[in-house]
Amino acid sequence: MFCENAALRDCWYPVARTADVSIHPVPVTLLGTKVVLYRTTSGEIVAATDRCPHREAPLSKGVVKDGCLVCPYHGWTFGDDGTCVRVPSASEDVPPPPRAHLSTFHVAEKYGLVWLCLGTPAHDLPVIPQDDDPAFRRLNTPVDVWRTCAARM
């Protein structure tokens, strides 16, 4: 299958507009992988697996509280590096289980877009020389999902 080619995972892909990612989790899918994007209190974007390791609830349905992503199902809480920092049903002195942590991905902001790499980046982000040229203007328009064939669009 096209999406399972390992070489594709080491490339950068624009997955959202910078303006669309805030403290509210945003779901995206890249190469068949479901990812959640959100901003921490410092303004950095985090990209993590959109699946809680506890009961597999979509974390994109959760909330960001104090810069941490909170699962909507049982409230497991994850720091910006994917580390589980809180399990509400456990005592404060009991550490989260070893498998409770999220996989995080490489993410960057450039040209008003959020770029995502699921593997190890093989190259730097693409260079768009016109972005520095005042004669050009960049327009990042929202993405519309059309549930029809291309000929009908």
Description:
The chain is an all-beta fold and 153 residues long. 0% of the residues lie in helices and 28% in strands. The chain contains no helices and 10 strands. The protein has strands at 13-17, 26-30, 33-39, 45-49, 63-65, 68-70, 77-78, 84-86, 106-110, 113-117. The protein has a 4-stranded antiparallel beta sheet with strand order 5-6-7-8, with no helix packed on it. A 3-stranded antiparallel beta sheet has the order 1-10-9, with no helix packed on it. A 3-stranded antiparallel beta sheet has the order 2-3-4, with no helix packed on it.
Please give the share of residues in helix. under 10%
Low-confidence stretches: none
Q: What is the total tally of β strands?
A: 10
Mean pLDDT across every amino acid position: 89
Q: What summary fits the major beta sheet?
A: 4 strands, antiparallel
Percentage of residues in DSSP E strands: 25-35%
Strand order of the largest sheet: 5-6-7-8
**Global morphology:** globular
The string of secondary-structure elements, in order, is EEEEEEEEEE
Give me the Rg, rounded: 18 Å
C-alpha termini separation: 26 Å
Count of discrete alpha- or pi-helical segments spanning 4 or more residues: 0
Q: Please identify the structural class as seen in this structure.
A: mainly beta
